């Protein structure tokens, strides 16, 4: 009985080729994006977890130390967007570096879009790309408003 199920599982484990998208095609509330972008600038925002809250030391809550956060302006030839880098991702986001973002998602922060890669995605440094970043089309500067539609 087990041998009959084997051929069907072999067909489902075949991986799809990643589809890379451009920055200008990103929309609020979407996820699963693969992008090749250049880092324009990187600003460290804060290291969280350093305060002693509720009588417990933060070291017992997070053994890896405080969480690091950086806001990085990244983009390609179609546009730019703010990327929220966390922990190890901060080290990779050096200005002029070319980075591949896999399984990235769009988070909303104060009504504007931010790009992020969580534990299900990957950030990797790539070979330098030969495109310039279009900073004129910054998607993080567009403010969105949540509108509830009643039927």
Distance between the termini: 51 Å
The beta-strand count equals 6
CATH architecture descriptor name of the domain at 26-46 and 67-125: Beta Barrel
Annotated CATH topology of the domain at 26-46 and 67-125: OB fold (Dihydrolipoamide Acetyltransferase, E2P)
Rg computed from alpha carbons, rounded to a whole number of angstroms: 19 Å
Structural category is mainly beta
Mind telling me the CATH class of the domain at 26-46 and 67-125? Mainly Beta
Domain Single-stranded DNA binding protein Ssb-like OB fold: 26-125
Pfam families: OB_Ssb-like
Summarize the SSE layout with pairings:
Elements: H1 2-12, E1 31-48, H2 58-61, E2 67-75, E3 80-86, H3 88-92, E4 98-109, E5 112-116, E6 122-125
Parallel strand pairs: 3-5
Antiparallel strand pairs: 1-2, 1-4, 2-3, 4-5, 4-6
Pfam families: OB_Ssb-like
Domain Single-stranded DNA binding protein Ssb-like OB fold: 26-125
InterPro entries: NA-bd_OB-fold, OB_Ssb-like
Task: Provide an overview of this structure.
InterPro entries: NA-bd_OB-fold, OB_Ssb-like. Residues 26-125 form the Single-stranded DNA binding protein Ssb-like OB fold domain. The protein has 151 residues and is mainly β. It has a domain at 26-46 and 67-125: OB fold (Dihydrolipoamide Acetyltransferase, E2P). The chain contains three helices and six strands; from the N terminus they run H-E-H-E-E-H-E-E-E. The chain has helices at residues 2-12, 58-61, 88-92, and strands at residues 31-48, 67-75, 80-86, 98-109, 112-116, 122-125. Strands 1-2-3-5-4 form a five-stranded mixed barrel. The longest helix has 11 residues, at 2-12. It is globular, with a radius of gyration of 19 Å. The termini are far apart.
